[in-house]
Amino acid sequence: MWPPKVCVGMALGMCPKDKLYRGYIDLEIQLREFDRCRILYEKFLEFGPENCVTWMRFAELETLLGDTDRARAIYELAVNQPRLDMPELLWKAYIDFEVSLGESKKAKKNYECLLERTLHVKDSTEIRTSISPSSAVELNTPRALANYATEAVDLQDLLYVSQVWMSYAQFELASADESNVELARRVYERANLSLRGANEKEERVLLLEAWREFETQHGDESSLNNVIKKMPRRVKKRQRVQADDGTEEGWEEFFDYIFPEDEATKPNLKLLEMAKAWKKQQQTNDEEKEGEDDDDDSNSSSES
Question: What positions does the domain Pre-mRNA-splicing factor Syf1/CRNKL1-like C-terminal HAT-repeats occupy (predicted)?
Fold first, then answer.
């Protein structure tokens, strides 16, 4: 009869599977062979470097063993992978890790890095999860991490940039800084400007609703009214529907959001467009005039 470790090792050699790797690692943990666990995690990640749960479990093991520097290095390697199956889940674990260590500056830096990547890359395979600065106790065991990952996968929602911004604002609000309310407000202001520039209307509505709730609880009448003035109107519109071959199939109705801030800038945009048109017309007139002058000079020369 082969020993269990030998059987599992042979099985991995013939047919490497996630379940086999996890079972082998759990066996080594029970035997307290932590160096063997590290080797297995490294092999596991060579087999599937996009697997966020594996990265998190590896970092969690190092955290439980008290090697926070090694755990941080694992998180850094993980978030810099070219492709990840659940990046938001991984970033949440990384942020919660820094919060649990009292490293608020590093946690804040992670939020900024996450926002920078989220704003530039929106892959349909990425999954939105609730990224809140909750206690790291919620994710303090490999089993808890696995359960959390399963719940996140079941969501099957697309990534919402507004969720990251709102989580960042909650993080600032929960900080021990005396100006925590103002710091959170600045995050909401930055978020609104960012989503406005990206024309992310639905996400902007979600953000403004959260901002309004924030000002209701922590702001004053002036700050609350400032947000209320930014809230959009929901209007019904119609648009033509075209088939794949280009033929028209009629009209369809949809809802759009009209933001007061955007409406206020429209007159200025019109003036800018008129100014550009006038400048272009002036250039055209000048070119035509120069052409006429050249023709006159040519005629004068021929007559001479």
Answer: 19-109
